[in-house]
Design brief:
alpha/beta; disordered C terminus
Length: 233
């Protein structure tokens, strides 16, 4: 369901760093905009998506398309900025209900645990670790995010909601939304998978990578390890 762009436009966000408060409608008042709503600044999946989005940042900038990243809170934002994960403007919402207005759901512990075993999640964890993106435990672990693409003046091109923590749109699909598919270069913008990257560290089984990423209690560690082995992840 496409959100009410007028209602969303009235929501306020604060700049990172600085803390200047602006209404979201200001993003699409004078230009097209691609807005990405991250789950958590310390989430490895979010850092990975931010790095991948930065690969198309020059194309967006050249075509006068504003690139914006928004978080649900300020916690962990300094580390995100210092890590230079995102080549765009950063903000966080003043009111968490903005995420609910956009239809971004919240996980429960069972759905969160299950989603970490998806093939997409396993690949993202492996790729993030190979890139040294790291992560931390700060912030809201169960919130999902997504994206909103808006034309100058307020026409919504696409609204995207995550179904899992590693869910994302490809760079190619994003450029297509703005009729920029001719600018797409697979060798540098392809959201490459782990097997296409060079990595000189010792290979770990996917289920061990997942357990390293997720700070589970000892009982949950045992459960997850048995679950992975049974499903031959």
């Amino acid at each position: 369901m496409t959100p009410d762009v007028n209602a969303i436009g009235s929501q306020k966000v604060k700049s990172i760093p600085g803390g200047e408060s602006v209404e979201m409608r200001s993003f699409w008042q004078d230009q097209n905009v691609a807005i990405f709503f991250f789950r958590r600044w310390g989430c490895m999946f979010c850092r990975l998506w931010a790095k991948e989005l930065s690969e198309i940042a020059p194309v967006l900038k050249k075509n006068n398309i504003k690139l914006v990243g928004i978080g649900v809170e300020d916690a962990g934002s300094k580390e995100f900025v210092d890590g230079k994960f995102f080549d765009g403007d950063l903000y966080y919402v003043e009111d968490r209900s903005t995420y609910q207005m956009l239809g971004f759901k919240r996980f429960n512990i069972v759905s969160l645990m299950t989603s970490l075993f998806w093939k997409q999640s396993r690949e993202a964890i492996a790729k993030g670790k190979s890139m040294g993106l790291g992560g931390d435990l700060k912030g809201d672990w169960v919130q999902t995010g997504g994206a909103l693409f808006v034309e100058k003046g307020g026409k919504v091109l696409r609204h995207f909601s995550q179904t899992g923590p590693s869910d994302h749109l490809s760079n190619k699909d994003i450029l297509k939304l703005f009729d920029l598919e001719n600018e797409y270069k697979a060798e540098t913008m392809a959201n490459k998978k782990r097997e296409e990257l060079e990595c000189n560290r010792r290979s770990l089984k996917p289920w061990r990578l997942i357990l390293r990423e997720c700070p589970l209690t000892p009982i949950h560690n045992i459960w997850a390890e048995r679950r992975c082995k049974q499903s031959q992840v």
